[in-house]
Structures are given as C-alpha cells and as structure tokens.
Amino acid sequence: MPTARKRARAYDYAKTRTAVLAQLGNVREAVRGLGPERLALPTRLGEWTVRELVAHIGMAVTAVHRALDEPAPPRQDVTVVEWPFATAANSSAIAGFTRRLAEQHPDLDTYLADVDRSLRELLEEHPGSRLLATSAGALPLADYLVTRTVELVVHTDDLNAAVPGLDVPYDRQALAAATRLLADALAVKAPGGSTEVRIPPYAVVQCGEGPRHTRGTPPNVVETDPLTWIRLATGRLLWKDAIEAAKASASGERADLAALLPLMS
Questions:
Q1: How far apart are the C-alpha atoms of 242 and 120, rounded to whole Å?
Q2: Do 168 and 161 form a contact (C-beta atoms < 8 A)?
Q3: CA 66, CA 134: separation in Å to the nearest integer?
Q4: What is the mean pLDDT of each run of 10 residues along the chain (265 residues)?
Q5: What does pTM read for this prediction?
C-alpha cells in the first residue's frame, strides 16, 4: 500500500453525511421505477445484473453499519487516502455477499429504504470521530463516509451505463468528495511534483518524480472532468481511450498517466 502524505485533506463531516444520504436517495428514486426486465440487464461488472448492482450499492452503504457493530479500534492507523489501495483484496468475498443480498431482497425499493432509515439513525447516534475498523485500517467515521461517496458515485455511473436513459443524477458534494479522494490517492501513489493533474472544479494535485512546479504554466499538465477521472481511477475507462476520445488532455513528456491507472480495481 502506498504511503500517505503526512497531511491528509480535511473533509466536512456534515457535508459528507448530507452527500451520502443525497446520493443514496438519488439511487432509490431511480430504482423505484425499474421493472424486472431492466433489473435483469447486464452491467459492466462481470456477471452482475442491474439487480445485483443495486444490492451492492446497498451493501456498500451498510458497510458503515457493520463497522459500527464492531468495537472501536484503540487508535487511527491510516488516513482516508490509503483506502482506495485496499479495495481489491476483498473483491471475491464482496461478489458472493452481493449475490446473496440480491436473492434475499427481491423488493429493492424496500431494501434501500431500510438502508437509508438505519443509516440516518446511526449517524445521529455516533459522532464523526468514532473510530471504525475498515478494510484499509482504523479510520474515523467522518473519513469512512468519504469512501462511501466514492462507492455511491462509481456505482451510480455503473447503473447509468447499464440502463439506457436512466440518468441517475450525481449529488454535487458526493461527486466532489469522490473526485478529491481519488486525486489525492494518485498523488500518494506517485509522489512528486512534475505533473499537475487538474479536475475542475473540484481538484488539482501534483504527482510524479521530478521538480515541483510553483510558478507560471506547468510543463506537464493533465486535465479532465470529474466523471472521466473517476472512471479512469477505477478502471472503467482506459487512459488511451480517454485521450483518443478527447475526454482527457495531456501535455508534456511526463503527462502520461497510463502506468499509474487504475488506482482501484
């Protein structure tokens, strides 16, 4: 796992909490209108159907519930920016859990309503400082909720890709938090300052070995939009395809990010 910067970006707990609930609400509203045929559609996530994808979205949120059921760790031992690098280790277990959830909850609207209600109750009960044992290590609840914005935004995008015309909206604050966390993860994976990565309007980071740029126009610049960045960072889109489709621009001899992506898989 890459070593995080000493100073991790701070996130506003109240805004993150609102963003998670808002994006979950967006998914709930969209799923309410899906009939059996569209729930059976394939997704870009291997063998998962839309039904299983929706079940997984609920599971990603109730990871908060499961973590709060466990005793609080004695101390924080990672920062939130390290979380993206710990996700791949649990992929097989997550797939099995997701399929069981989809079978156990045929009424997805009721399932997501229960997830929403119970999450609201837990967030009222526990402060953001409460430590959780997560797949990455011990994190405060406030930081772990930032990781839930990544899960919700990424899988909302998967849902939109799978169901033509669905167009589930993205909560602005959820999209911002997800973009910033994954941009910071890039800076951790490739420390340095030779390349500036711009993801307006939410994030700018420097990465890559070489001299850190401080004035004027940087010699190596990458620029893309938030959703394209999230797709690149999570393996939904290849670097070469993003460049060829003009979804991302890269200037300078050190501006090729192909070897660094994806950050999550």
A1: 38
A2: no
A3: 10
A4: 68 98 97 95 96 96 97 97 86 81 92 98 98 96 98 98 97 98 97 95 92 70 98 98 98 95 92
A5: 0.94
